[in-house]
Design a protein that fits this description.
The longest helix is centred in the middle third of the chain and has 37 residues. Helix 1 packs parallel to helix 3 and helix 1 crosses helix 6. With 223 residues, this protein is α+β, with helices and mostly antiparallel strands. It folds into two domains: 74 residues, Glutaredoxin, CATH 3.40.30.10; 121 residues, Up-down Bundle (Glutathione S-transferase Yfyf (Class Pi), Chain A, domain 2), CATH 1.20.1050. A four-stranded mixed sheet has the order 2-1-3-4, covered by helices on one side. It has eight helices and four strands, in the order βαβαββαααααα.
């Protein structure tokens, strides 16, 4: 059985949880708080970042969400998430990078800093200007997603892919932190509602941080 070292509001951990669930790969969750990683976790990943997956019986330890995703894509035939032609696979990887890097840096990371880290670690109030900027950036990313969904059944093409999982993972964290205004983004909201109804996604929506609570609509399938 795989052990998945993760933090509940780490979007990269969420991406791997979604991927493993969609592929039917069993795992046990092990929580690691990013501000206080254990010595054992540093031994698993010197970067000290989640997620990390470990199979002790096979002697396998994998770190970095994109490397982990590629591993399961190559070793588990069920529910391929990087599929299609070479051009299709390149498009999937392009969009995964867009959400893992641009969306995270523009939206998710600032929200985590202002709404989580400042409250739990630094005991400081959030910077309202930084929050407004993150939400403004979110609108720009959702506009692009609206355009993709207007032109494709799924973000990267005709079938669900790792690009959809990466996007849903980032959006779910931003939405938990109150950083998503869905007005004017009915296309993306509809796409996200489909994800919220999937069995792989329900465990994410049921989790709660001890102190930080999500908006009322967060766990509603049509919210």
């Amino acid at each position: 059985m795989w052990q998945l070292y993760q933090f509940p509001l780490c979007p990269f951990s969420r991406k791997i949880r979604l991927l493993m669930a969609e592929k039917g790969v069993g795992y046990d969750l092990v929580r690691e708080d990013p501000w206080a990683p254990s010595d054992m976790f540093h031994n698993l990943n010197a970067a000290g970042a989640t997620p990390v997956v470990v199979d002790e019986e096979k002697g396998i330890t994998l770190a970095d969400s994109r490397a982990i995703a590629e591993y399961f894509e190559e070793t588990v035939d069920a529910s391929p998430m990087i599929n299609g032609t070479a051009a299709n696979r390149a498009e999937i990887r392009r969009l995964v990078a867009l959400f893992d890097e641009n969306f995270y840096n523009d939206v998710t990371a600032p929200l985590l800093l202002e709404r989580m880290k400042k409250r739990l670690i630094y005991k400081q109030p959030p910077d309202s200007r930084a929050l407004r900027e993150a939400m403004k950036n979110a609108h720009g990313h959702l506009d692009y997603m609206d355009w993709l969904i207007d032109n494709r059944p799924w973000l990267a093409g005709s079938t669900m892919s790792l690009a959809d999982l990466a996007a849903a993972a980032q959006i779910s964290v931003a939405d938990y932190l109150g950083g998503i205004d869905w007005k004017g983004h009915e296309q993306t909201r509809g796409w996200y509602s489909v994800f919220k109804s999937r069995p792989s996604f329900r465990p994410l929506l049921s989790e709660r941080m001890d102190v930080i609570k999500p908006p009322a609509h967060y766990a509603l399938v049509d919210g």
